[in-house]
Specification:
The structure holds 2 protein chains of 2 kinds. By secondary structure, chain A is of the alpha/beta class. Helix content of chain A is 35%, strand content 22%. In chain A, α1 (33-43) runs parallel beside α2 and α8 (214-222) crosses α10 (242-251).
């Protein structure tokens, strides 16, 4: 049986609090990322991603503490990203109970970091997060998407598809691919981007950025060839539950984990 | 949603054996979540004082067996079983229960179950298998009490057990080809997946194992 497609809620965390906020009325503390992750676990989320976006996260203690608290309460695999710049940072987070670490800017700055982490922890622990934006003028021999860092503010000049291929060659076990054009728009995933990367690498690709309704999740998998879909606001604001997402995907003929 | 069936008012402990391979904290927390103390132990007496033992593990088989033998945990596991206490191997820990493995240079295992560990016969699927998969039960067992068939568990493995005695197989999964996901030869148990990362189904398996430990304790002291 081929692997089941995964639904992965993503929580942006700033100074230990969920940034985008939620309206789960029955959560005692909806700003607590761990409480929210527990809720998603109960609803049938297959994994959870915590992205620490604290501007001044030179101090890794907050993400280690987050990993520890998550491991105490969340019993599905979880990934921590943001502020991981070295093997030592990754070690601390994995020791605390995280299953994977996601690296983004640090890998662009020093690509060898991907290989160093894969060597120590295995590729299955290393997620390469790529923020990609469409380039204005298509250039011959390039994919049409450029890698950005610093939340989309900093253009790197790297071609997104080429960077994904290089990342996998260096040891990344998964690609978390965010469309900066679609992020926050609710216009759906950038299916072309997702498919371009999925067709080019041998590891799973997580589609991210732009999911505005549950049909977008189906499209991301069916047309974007994503192995997993990352979802943020669609779930946080209670518009839809993970269980509803699973149900829509199942109806569309996509094999997902069922909650019984 | 699956009832976790947590234990209340129990004073049993399940030791999580630390031989330096893999993240034990998640295992400890999952067992605590269903109401049972699960100290991480690396010495003989602490393990023998517990009412059950978990043999976890992530990594390569030969290195794991070297560490197990160096710490004389092979003898310890034998003693725990001889005392009638349940032992459960998780992931690599389950593989170690068998006679041998062909991983890397190959190695002898604990030989508590007949069979060998070989690479997954995954066809054109990616190896390692990394993700959720269905497990179907071959028979009823206290370990699978309250769990539907199929249940879903989180796997991270490149190898699997080729079991000699089919009566030792409690659960099967499929990844390119069928493979053994759960073994049972009371008081010995093993799961190829990570119950501690498998949400309600995994936690229910942990509480079921804890109840097996409670029952074993009662029958030994009776």
């Amino acid at each position: 049986m081929p692997p089941l497609k995964r639904v992965i809620p993503c929580l942006d965390v700033d100074n230990g609090r969920v940034v985008k906020g939620t309206n789960f009325v029955d959560l005692r503390d909806a700003g607590d990322p761990v409480a929210l992750a527990e809720r998603y676990d109960e609803e049938g989320a297959d994994e959870v991603v915590f992205l620490d976006i604290t501007a001044t996260s030179d101090d890794r203690d907050t993400i280690v503490e987050l990993a520890r608290r998550a491991a105490d309460n969340v019993f599905i695999p979880f990934t921590i990203g943001g502020g991981i710049r070295s093997v030592e940072d990754a070690q601390a987070v994995l020791d605390a109970g995280a299953d994977k670490v996601a690296i983004n800017s640090a890998a662009v700055k020093r690509p060898r970091l991907i290989g160093e982490m894969a060597e120590v922890f295995g590729s299955q622990c290393v997620v390469l997060a790529i923020d990609a934006k469409r380039t204005e003028e298509p250039v011959h021999g390039r994919s049409g998407w450029e890698v950005f860092t610093a939340g989309g503010r900093h253009a790197t000049g790297l071609d997104a598809v080429a960077w994904a291929i290089e990342g996998v060659e260096r040891g990344a076990g998964e690609i978390l691919l965010t469309s900066m054009d679609r992020d926050g728009t609710k216009d759906g995933y950038d299916v072309e981007l997702t498919r371009s990367v999925a067709d080019s690498v041998s590891v799973p690709v997580i589609a991210s950025g732009g999911a505005g309704n549950l049909g977008d999740l189906v499209t991301g998998v069916a047309e974007g060839k994503a192995d997993a879909v990352l979802v943020a606001s669609l779930f946080h604001f209670g518009e839809h539950s993970v269980a509803e997402a699973k149900s829509v995907m199942t109806d569309a003929g996509i094999a997902v984990r069922q909650i019984a | 949603m699956t009832d976790l069936n947590p234990l209340t008012d129990t004073d049993i402990t399940i030791a999580v054996l630390d031989y330096g391979m893999g993240n034990l904290r998640s295992v400890e927390k999952a067992i605590e979540h269903v109401g049972v103390k699960a100290p991480i132990v690396d010495d003989h007496d602490a393990a023998m004082n517990a009412d059950g033992l978990i043999l976890p593990g992530v990594g390569a088989f030969p290195e794991a067996m070297r560490r197990v033998r160096d710490a004389r945990f092979d003898e310890l596991i034998g003693e725990v079983l001889a005392a009638g206490k349940p032992v459960m191997g998780i992931c690599l820990g389950m593989q170690l229960l068998f006679e041998s493995s062909s991983e890397h240079e190959g190695a002898w295992g604990l030989g508590l179950l007949q069979g060998r560990i070989d690479a997954l016969d995954a066809g054109n699927l990616k190896v390692p298998q990394l993700g959720w998969n269905e497990v179907r039960w071959s028979r009823s067992s206290p370990l699978t009490d309250g769990l539907p068939s199929p249940s879903y568990f989180f796997f991270a493995n490149s190898f699997s057990a080729r079991v000699v005695n089919s009566e030792d197989v409690l659960g099967e999964s499929d990844y390119g080809a069928p493979f053994t996901a759960v073994v049972e030869k009371h008081p010995l148990y093993g799961a190829q997946f990570h119950p501690e990362k498998s949400s309600a189904h995994g936690l229910r398996m942990m509480s079921n194992f804890a109840r097996i430990c409670v029952a074993a304790k009662a029958s030994v002291s009776a």
